[in-house]
Design a protein that fits this description.
Elements lengths: L1 H11 L13 H4 L7 E6 L4 E5 L5 E2 L4 H13 L20 H5 L10 H12 L4 H16 L5 E2 L1 H9 L2 H12 L7 H12 L1 E3 L1 H7 L15 H14 L5 H7 L4 E3 L4 E6 L3 E6 L10 H14 L6
Antiparallel strand pairs: 1-2, 1-8, 3-5, 4-5, 6-7, 7-8
Length: about 300
Amino acid sequence: MQDLLDEIAATLGPRPDRGSVADYIPELAKIDPQQFGMAIALADGSVHVAGDADTPFSIQSVSKVFALALALGKVGDQLWRRVGREPSGQSFNSILLLEREEGIPRNPFINAGALVTTDTYLALSSPREALGHLLRFVRAAADDEGIHINHDVARSELETAHRNFALAHYLAAFDNLHNSPDKVLGTYCHQCAIDMTCRQLALAGRFLIEGAGFPRLLSRDRRRRINALMMTCGHYDGSGDFAFRVGLPGKSGVGGGILVIAPGRASIAVWSPGLNRYGNSLLGTEAMEVFARRTGWSVFG
């Protein structure tokens, strides 16, 4: 496994075509696109890393996996009255379907749906209390107290979150937010600004695989459902392409990170800041395609 990760990093690391960083968030625009890291936490407890696997990065929308787990823990299946479970076929920040479907987002991984899950775990708490709860969850999953929010990224994101504010106000217009748009957006932008390394993210993802000694933070049923949503909706309007090329559940973020789950086998994290046209890591997607082909791992047999 270590040889495979080293080979992938050595092959993809020097690639000139790396995509474009998310320059609409000023702090992310500063990130060096030449970086590439990968980590895998196996079901036997071992961890293998390659490249820049110990460099922290903003996990952005990968945080939606942890937020969804927290929201389900708070309200259970009542969540599905407020957000759907279908692929959107639209970009991650599209308002089109939200208007057409009267304020019910298609799934919890597009931005509108994530605002609903953030609103759900926020409940009647202060943003500080809610974010503290989220961080405790992530730290418990990774067994690492060194995971923090990057406040510079959060501030940068909040200052440029005009489209997300529009989505939040649209949700509020259909009575699908219980907190004020400002409160939800502040919490959401800080949630997305959690900094993690590939090693930490791979370790945190273990709560979504079945393995002895791994964190038991979810029921088996909820774990299966989150994996299903990662497969069908985890890469926005590129979810079908990722499923076709990789065949494993994954969740991407515009910081260039991808968390991938091989059920019963491993949690995998890959990071390269340059994005493809869907807003997913260009080299990260290619790395996972090579990894899945070489290991033969796929939920499709």
